[in-house]
Amino acid sequence: MKKAKPYIFSILLALTIGGLSALSIAKNMNIYDKINPPPLAPAGWLFPVVWTVLFTLMGISAALVFTSKSKKKDDALFIYAVSLVLNFSWSIFFFNLLSFIVSFIILVALWLSIIITIIKYYPINKAAAWLQLPYLLWVTFAGYLNFAIILLN
């Protein structure tokens, strides 16, 4: 159980941030149904499913780094924490403030922070770095959606 604690904590932390983000925008989720969607826009129900999987993978990834003996882990985990803050901020700007341009800028910063996280994780734990890849791919897709929403709305 002692070895599982960092994983449980890390996964719960990531899921909690995702859950708080969802709660903070719950009243405005219908915005997605009112905008002109871009081609390839998935159904709204898919987002919480994907984010739950991604936050779980992110938590496992962070725990792998946290439990390592690397002296570089604090720096790597700081960048990961920045990505969580950016992730949370994007939702507020997109859904609550309807600021699609600012949310896109935040998304670009998030995308860069994920790349930096991967780069910093890789020498510490290769599996941790690879577990960030789905997050990067989804945020790349989200960037396409966000930018297309700016153009279409």
3D structure, described in words:
- The protein is 77% helix and 0% strand.
- It has 153 residues and is mostly helical.
- The model has no long low-confidence stretch (mean pLDDT 96).
- The chain has helices at residues 5-25, 31-34, 46-66, 73-96, 100-121, 126-131, 133-152.
- It is elongated and about 50 Å long.
Write the layout of secondary structure elements.
Blueprint: H1 5-25, H2 31-34, H3 46-66, H4 73-96, H5 100-121, H6 126-131, H7 133-152
Helix pairs in contact: 1-3, 1-4, 4-5, 5-7
Q: Which features does this protein show?
A:
single chain, mainly alpha, 77% helix
Structural class category: mainly alpha
Q: Point out poorly predicted stretches.
A: none
Helix content: over 70%
The span between the termini is 51 Å
Tell me the number of helical segments per DSSP (H or I, 4 or more residues long). 7
Main beta sheet: strand number and arrangement? Answer: none
Number of strands: 0
Kindly provide the radius of gyration, computed on alpha-carbon positions and rounded to a whole number of angstroms.
16 Å
What is the string of helix and strand elements?
HHHHHHH
> Roughly what is the average pLDDT, rounded to an integer?
96
Overall morphology = elongated
Beta-strand portion reads under 5%
